[in-house]
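Researcher: Structure for this, please.
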Amino acid sequence: MNSAIEILKSRGFFQQCTDVESLSNLMDEGPVTFYVGTDPTGGSLHIGHMVPNFAFRHLRDAGNKGISLLGGGTARIGDPSGKSDIRKMLSYEQLDKNTDSIRIQLDRFIGFDGKTAFSVNNKDWLASLNYIDFLRDIGCHFSVNKMLSFEAYKMRMETGLSFIEFNYQLLQSFDFLELYRRHGCRLQIGGDDQWGNIVAGVELVRRVERAEVFGFTFPLVTTSDGKKMGKTEKGALFLDPAITTPYDFFQYWRNIQDQDILRFLLMFTFLPVDECQSLCSAGKNPNDAKERLAWEVTALIHGKEEADKALAGAKAAFGGGGDKLAMPRAEIARSRFENGYNIVDLFCDTGLVPSKSEGRRLVQQGGAFVSDNSGELFAISDPAYSAGADRLNDKGELILRAGKKRYLLIFTESP
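Model: Predicted structure, token format:
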């Protein structure tokens, strides 16, 4: 088996392939051009989008050539795969803005050098298509019966599948054909929810160009308790630091279940397989492995400086040294404490709880902690309690904790 495919298998990326032996033989003959597509349905990628892009880097590092296809055209319709309802239609201007933002995020992670890796936008060939010609030249190769046999369409048939969404598979397949014609692309990679679309593209290239191309999918990643990977109390784990701070991003990985450590080290870092296994070997402290995982992924997404800051903030918050100024922070006027700051209002105003009702519940259940002027944290169980200025340390600071893992440093004077 080709070494690049072996690497993907050893790190947990393999789910299905249209013909793995023939793909392996093709890779043995020389570099293969492959692509992965991303629709810009939002202004930021989340960590779930990154599984194919980690595989992208492994394939590129093995000597292959990668294309990052940005779906500025397909996003105008919306992929029904994995969705119970039709996607919200965004303006063309918003989609262009999202495309620019996502391209920057991917460039930062992959490094588009124009030779071994580059990006293209399918809007360049889809936006100007003549619909009649497209139906005659491309639509004739698709069987409606076969399309409806794919899981993505079968699921949507129960809740309602719009005609515009039904066209999505034709457009994604046409992407593969265009990339084969323009760049000699022979392989599409993606999540396993894309299997039907990928197979359709493979078939279209075979029918139109009489060429053999391939599809390769990865498992959809869930945590050991069955939850969708990358989901937090605040929503998805986004790459944009304005949505998910580097500290919160770090803390997600630091707080994963022990059963997920090795799998996530293999998939979301580039540490050698034997080092990942060693970090998780019997007798090792799993918290050390989680900390290494958190630092590695945060460094890859946000840079080493932000990873160091997040690590220092986590150590300060959890009593292991470090710099508490690296913790998430919020500034509040000292006068609010001089007059007594109601505990529920304090946790709500700082964003540690989404509403006052959630704040009261947190307090009553013993999950609200406030530091005294020495920095020691104490649980507050009375929703009527007010934090006074005597709680502030000599620098005018206060630490809040919601539950076991969410900390916030309050400062009352700009540093």
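Researcher: Any notable elements?
Model: The chain is about 45% helix and 15% strand. Residues 18 and 215 are 5 Å apart (CA to CA).
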